[in-house]
Amino acid sequence: MTETVSAAQQATSEAGKGLKMERVFSTEGVHPYDAITWERRDVVQTNWKTGETVFEQRGVEFPDFWSVNASTIVTTKYFRGAVGADNREQSLKQLIDRVVGKYVAAGRDFNYFATEADVAVFEQELTWLLVNQYFSFNSPVWFNVGTTAPQQVSACFILSVDDSMDSILNWYKEEGFIFKGGSGAGLNLSRIRSSKELLKSGGTASGPVSFMRGADASAGTIKSGGATRRAAKMVVLDVDHPDIEEFVETKWREEDKIRALRDAGFDMDLGGKDITSVQYQNANNSVRVSDEFMRAVEEGKEFGLRSRSTGEVIETVDARSLWRKIAEAAWACADPGIQYDGTINDWHTNPETGRITASNPCSEYMSLDNSSCNLASLNLLKFLKDDDTFDATRFAQAVEVIITAMDISICFADFPTEPIGKTTVDYRQLGIGYANLGALLMAMGLGYDSEGGRAMAATITSLMTGTSYRRSAELAAIVGPYNGYARNAEAHQRVMRKHQAADDQIRTLSSIDGDIHKLASAEWAKVVELGKVNGFRNAQASVLAPTGTIGFMMDCDTTGIEPDFSLVKFKKLVGGGSMQIVNQTIPRALVKLGYNAETVEAIVEFISEHGHVIDAPGLKLEHYEVFDTAMGARALKPMGHVRMMAACQPFLSGAISKTVNLPETATVEEIMDVYMESWKLGLKATAVYRDNCKVGQPLADGGGKAKKDAADKAAASEAEVVEKIVEKVVYAPTRKRLPKSRVSRTTSFTVGGAEGYMTSGAHEDGSLGEVFLKLGKQGSTLAGVMDAFSIATSIGLQYGVPLETYVAKFTNLRFEPAGLTDDADVRMAQSIMDYIFRRLALDYLDFDARSALGIYSAEERQRHLETGSYEPLELSEADSLKTVEPVRKDLPEVVETSNVVDAEVVSEAPAPERAAKTSAELLEIITGTAVDSPLCFTCGTKMRPAGSCYVCEGCGSTSGCS
Predict the structure, then answer these.
(1) Phi and psi at residue 136, in whole multiples of 5°?
(2) What separation in angstroms does the CA of 388 have from each of 442, 443, 455, 863?
(3) Among 377, 662, 768, 861, which has the highest number of CB atoms less than 10 A from its own CB?
């Protein structure tokens, strides 16, 4: 690693100058840790497929409002020291103090602050924002800063390679060191001569695709031994390179090879023992297209491919044919993506130093060759106020603190190579961004693919980058502009004016986004004014990264710029286990849209059962778009993703890590349209993924109907049959009979004018064991059917069918009689069955279980209206033992029960259980379709998309994102 302290010290200012820090978030005299409640937890992580314990650390300390999932990810990923050793970190306090302490010390040493009082305020503000999950640094900061390891803070690297064997072999070595450190890199191979050109010695050159093979093998080897994350890389080739068609076809041909080998009986699933024979699978490939080429496609003209050594055209191709081939390859295997060279370099602040030729693996960082970028992301939902407006002022104040910290990190950071270290110190590229945009828009009642949603996203992004560059100009006055600023001053200021002009073009739709826009416009005015005088401390300020692991660390519902993945999720519970929940922003959104408590409850219950809002009771059609998601029945249209990126792109220094998802039925023409429209709307890069386009994607156990091809369907069907046979052989259900004398309760009810009685009996532990229903006259058909239903339900309960299963199946059934009830807790019922099982849930299920099903008492609904939370302030013992109330003596007849107690078993089939372990697998079960994502190498669960990568919501592992 290359140390850069001496270089950074050259940029420090004279004594006496420095930032004055305003206290905004923390409280003077109160340490941020003392303002919150802490608790001890056990973190035990297992691979659910093998049952193997892969991690265990007990008694770790976290704030009580941090989810189990967040504490698990931080403990397993970021705590330093060997597990069980005395020096092992065991509290979030230690982790944050380790990182913040380094930033504070460097800020003091390099004269960033005016006084020691300002240093103290900076320390407490930064600590407060981190511990309260308002933002997070990227993973390398948590891995390395404050430890004895090299202080690598960057997650994104761009390399360079020239047309020489020394340079090519050095490329292999540099990538290896970067992968070993848990980061990823990208580069452009267009300087390497094509296979259609001659070497100086007279032979024919190998071409870049040939050298890609060696780099891919190296990445695969390092990936298999890595402990931090998988290797990630981006390979870019210019569209005018003579080997462009071979490059486009590389992964396409390999996908055909995978199919052939799979059909021959080889294990070609991702992670399978035979998949290593396939090449080019460890990199994302992108074609760098010029505006000249795109115009040739539009006009149907020929396009010239140029010699790398002379620049002369050595071959011409039909532009539209090549364009179609690119789309066909992306249709077949999701590669290549597109990078738009004209747009990228038109927004380049340092053109006098060199062109931008490549990006990092996820395509959000685009800058000079041999450079790096450290990232940080804000949690947007934290800035949503109680009145459902966005707190733009506090957001801007948070950006000031974060940008300051990010710039300080370059002063002490180490880098994997000397050229990367020099470029980063000279240009100080930063990558501030955000997460939870999808959740924020939903909570505000705005559709992701709507004018209102795009206006809100654009104003927030503009405010973030404008504030960042304004602080950068202020820092330049204190510790100097970046070293490369002088030669690029005119270009940098031109790009700032372009950002300002784009901000002027935003059309707001309400006072809410209008207020944010006013603040953003004021910031850009300051940027232009201060920049002329001071210059800028940073060549780049912002990107939108995937925020995979750190998104879970901040308990974000959505990652990066993404919409919500699905409306139903899994929530980990203290002590182990998990529960299905409906996205908690949904009730807030429904209240914002004007729905009353009863309707909100009914809609939430519907979503819990179906996973979507189509035909949800009481939900207006015009509000459906608010709850559109990345996957599922109301999945966003591909152009909805493109339009959202286009709304934010003019306000970013870099680009956006995001994949445009298309259904399996999408055509090549649709992919061509996505790529073309992305160019026209001013995006810097676009990647697509057509569902099920890859063979090497494992199916989730217990998932829905996969639609790969006939062979996949047959294999899945056979596996399912074998699994069911095994379960039938080994499963031996045992009936848990009720005691002869047991506690019961009888409830009278009225549903839509029809009267009835329900008596329920409990086991000694208070759990429900029998139900008797009295409806209609004795001897009538209805009474007989109710007796039979009571027997069947009671036997199921005694054989272990969870009450939650009955509640999930029978609530929301619609038939007459239906309507108003005389029960304050259940004011409306869609049928008698709907009422009965809601009442049983309220009587016999604990709060967490009911909350997962969206069922609340009248008291809890009222509490939510008053405090924003359904949860009781303190659950007493009496509350937890509701089921042991005696039978009310003043109520009428109770039906006889002796025939139920001794009834015989009807079926030995076990109660159906959901095999899902993550939200992706849960969505598969609900929708009956497969989510095309890889399985996590650490814990075996299905990952979910995050930007251009995948992230495991169980353990936080990623496929290369930050």
Answers:
(1) -145, 145
(2) 11, 8, 16, 18
(3) 377
Of 626, 659, 663, the residue nearest 642 (C-alpha): 659
Inter-CA distances, 159 with 364, 367, 958, Å: 15, 10, 22
| Nearest Cα residue to 248 out of 235, 257, 261, 258 | 235
Which residues in 565-585 are b (16+ Cβ under 10 Å) and which e? bbbbbbbbeeeeebebbbbeb
Give ranges for CATH 3.20.70.20 in the chain.
156-346
In this structure, of 322-326, 517-521, 631-635, the range with the lowest mean pLDDT score is 631-635
Residues 6 or more apart in contact with residue 714 via CB below 8 angstroms: none
Nearest by Cα to 761 from 736, 733, 783, 780: 736
Q: Is 54 helix (H, G, I), strand (E, B) or coil?
A: strand
Among 947, 432, 324, residue whose Cα is nearest residue 686: 947
Q: How buried is 717 (Cβ within 10 angstroms: 0-12 exposed, 13-18 middle, 19+ buried)?
A: exposed
CA 453: distance to chain centroid? 18
Nearest CA to 457 out of 508, 393, 501 is that of 508
Measure Cα distances from 647 to 344, 452, 640, 684 in Å: 16, 11, 11, 12
Write down the H helix ranges in 480-510.
485-504
Kindly give, in sequence order, each residue whose CB lies less than 8 Å from that of residue 121, ignoring residues fewer than 6 positions away: 21, 22, 23, 26
- Residue 580 CA to residue 852 CA, distance in Å, equals 6
Task: Find the angle CA(747)-CA(750)-CA(751) to the nearest 5 degrees.
Answer: 125
The catalytic site residues sit at 360, 362, 364
Q: Which of 415, 375, 413 is nearest to 548 (CA)?
A: 375
In this structure, are strands 313-318 and 302-306 parallel, antiparallel, or unpaired? Answer: antiparallel
- Counting Cα atoms < 13 Å in the Cβ hemisphere of 533 gives 10
What is the CATH code for 156-346? 3.20.70.20
pLDDT grade for 897, boundaries at 50, 70 and 90: very low
Could you tell me where the DSSP H helices lie in 845-886? 847-853, 858-867, 877-880
Q: What are the percentages of helix, strand and coil residues in the chain, rounded to 5?
A: 45, 15, 40
Q: How far apart are CA 75 and CA 58, in angstroms?
A: 10
Q: What is the pLDDT of residue 700?
A: 31
Helix 319-333 crosses helix 668-680 at what angle (to 10 degrees)? Answer: 110
pLDDT at 695 over 90: no
Instruction: Report the chain's mean pLDDT, rounded to a whole number.
Output: 84
pLDDT at position 205 is: 80
Structure tokens at 117: 């009082």
Side-chain half-sphere of 588: how many Cα atoms within 13 Å? Answer: 20
Instruction: With beta carbons less than 8 A apart as the criterion, state whether 427 and 350 touch.
Output: yes
Classify residue 389 as left (phi > 0), alpha (psi -120 to 50) or beta.
beta
- Quote the CA–CA distance of 400 and 567 in Å, as a whole number: 34
Other beta carbons within 10 Å of 805: 15
* 2 CB-near residues (< 8 Å, 6+ apart): 414, 415, 416, 417, 418, 420, 421
- DSSP-derived pairing of the beta strands 659-662 and 685-690: parallel
Q: What is the pLDDT of residues 294-319, one digit of tens each?
A: 999 999 999 999 999 899 999 999 99
Q: Rounded CA gap, 852 and 785, in Å? A: 30
Q: Is 549 exposed, middle or buried (0-12, 13-18, 19+ CB in 10 A)?
A: buried
Distance CA 493, CA 685 (A): 24
C-alpha torsion 871→876→877→883, nearest 10? -50
The residue assigned the tokens 């009914």 is 602
Sign of CA dihedral 268, 919, 636, 361: negative
Placement of tokens 């390399």 in the chain: 159
- Give CA–CA dist 819/808, Å, rounded: 20
